[in-house]
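Onboarding guide, step 5: your first structure request.
Type a short instruction followed by the sequence, for example:

Predict the 3D structure of this protein.
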Amino acid sequence: MASFLSIAAARAQRQNGTLGAFAILEAMNGTPAGHPHGAEAGAPPARAQLGETRPYRVLHLEDSEPDHALAMASLQRGGTRVRARRVETRAEFLAALDEPWDLVLSDYHLPGFTGLDALQMLCARGSPGAPPVPFILVSGQIGEDTAVEAMRNGAADYLLKNNLARLAPAVEHAVAGARMRRAREAADRELEASRRRLSELAQHLQTSVEAERQAIAREIHDDVGGSLTALKFELDWIRRHAENPAMQQRALSALETVTHAIESSQRIMQNLRPAILEQGLVAALQWMTSQFEKRLGIECEFRTPAGDTREPPALPAGVPLVAYRTAQEALTNVSKHSEATRVVVDLSLTGGVLSLEVSDNGRGLGQADLAKARSFGIRGLHERASTVGGWVDLSSGPTGTSLILSVPLTPPGSAPAARGRDDTDPDDAENSAWTVL
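The system replies with C-alpha cells like these:
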C-alpha cells in the first residue's frame, strides 16, 4: 500500500493537482483516476466535448507488437482516437523525435536502454524542467523508486500493462495539461515581451524629455537670458543718466525686477538641464542641497564618504543625470508632502555600486500615498533608474522616509578593478573615501 501511495503522490505532484485525490484513490482501490467506475467503452473524452476531432499523434516506444496492439485497443475502447507509430530502438526513437507528436508512450525495458533514458532524450529536446510533449511510462513491472524517479524527472504518468483501463483518461489529461502549459508559457513570453516594450518606451520617453528640456534650456539661455541681460544694461544706463530722482527710483525698481527675472530664468534652466553637472555629480548635489535649504528653510545636509568632496571615479554616461534627477524628485516630494525639518542626502560608492540616499524626518508615507492612481513620481524614479541598470528602494515609517538609488557600475560577471590613488590603501576610508572594491 505504501508503494502505491508514493507513486500516486509523485503523479499528483507532477500533474500540479490535476488528478489530485483521484490518483491516491486509484492507488488504494484500483479505480481509474477522474472516473467513478473505470474507463467504459466509448466514454467521450473531454476534448470531444470541446469539438476537437483530430486524432492524437502518438509515438509508442515498445519492442512488443502484441503490447502495442493492446495499448491501441485500450485507447480505442476509452474513446481516444490516435494515430500511432511504434519504434523499438534508440536510433529510431531519436529520429522520430524530429517529427511533431502529441504524446510519447514508452515501455521501460527496451533493447539497449530504458524508459528513463528515453525520457532524458525527450527532455533534452524541450525547455529546462519539462519535456516538449507528455511522456507516459507503461511497463509490465517496475519498482517504486523507478516510478517515482520517472514522475519527478518529467513523466506525465505511469501505468502497468496488466491494468490499462486508465490509459485513455491518462492520455487525455496528459495532452490537455501539456497544452495548458504551452499556453501558459506563451502567455508568459508575451507578458515578458510586453514588459520589455513598455520599459523601452519608458526609456525612450525619458530620453526624449531630457532632449526637450535641453533644447528649452538652451532657448531660455540664448534668447530670454540674453534679452533680459541687455535690458538690464539699458535700464542701468537710464538710471545713471536720469536727472529726475523719481525716474532714477523707477529705473532702480525696474532693475530689481529684471534681476529677479534673470535669476528665475537661471533657476528654470538649472531645473530643465543642470549645467552644473558639467562640474561633477558631487558639485551638482552640493549646489542642489544648498539651494533647497536656502529656498525652503529646511535643513538639508549633503554627505560623502568621510566628508570627501572630491568627485568619484569617472561614472558611466547617464548615471550622473539619473542620480541628480532622483535627488531632485526626492527633495521635491519632501517639500510638498513630508512636513520634514531635516533632510540628508548621502552619496557613496562601495563595491562597484553607486548609492544615493535621500532621507528625512517627516511624517512618512502610507500605503494610500503609494497607491494613488496618479502618483507617478516614484514610478518614474523606478523607470529612470532602470535606464542605467539601477533600482530604487523606498522605506517609510512614522519617523521619516528613506529613498535609495543603487546603480551597479561594473557589468555583471566582470571583476571590478580598484581605481583611485596608487599610494593609498583602498580599505582606508580616511585616505581614499571613493573606492570601487
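Each response can be followed by summary notes, for example: The CA atoms of residues 19 and 42 lie 21 Å apart.
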